[in-house]
What does this fold into?
Amino acid sequence: MTRKATIRTEHDDPDLVARAIAPDNTTEMETTVEDGRLVTRIERETTGGLHSNVDDYVVNVGVATEVVQHANRLDGETSTDRYQHTNE
It folds into this structure.
């Protein structure tokens, strides 16, 4: 018997979040963008394995979302504003 989970989340830029998390997806996972939402389907043979994948996925989506939001905030700044360095 296979255990399954489908996770749907909303993001300002779901395509970018999907690309950011794709390298972390296992062979038992499929991530797509449907109707403007990020949709990930996970199938595992055991409940523990499913739980572990879902937990890892939620953390990865959270990090990817924060990075995308931070990058979007920086888009309005000039390159010198983004990378200020001082020697003190």
Notes: The domain at 3-76 is CATH 3.30.310.50 (TATA-Binding Protein). The helical segments are 14-21, 47-74, 79-82. The chain has a mean pLDDT of 85. The chain has one domain: 3-76.
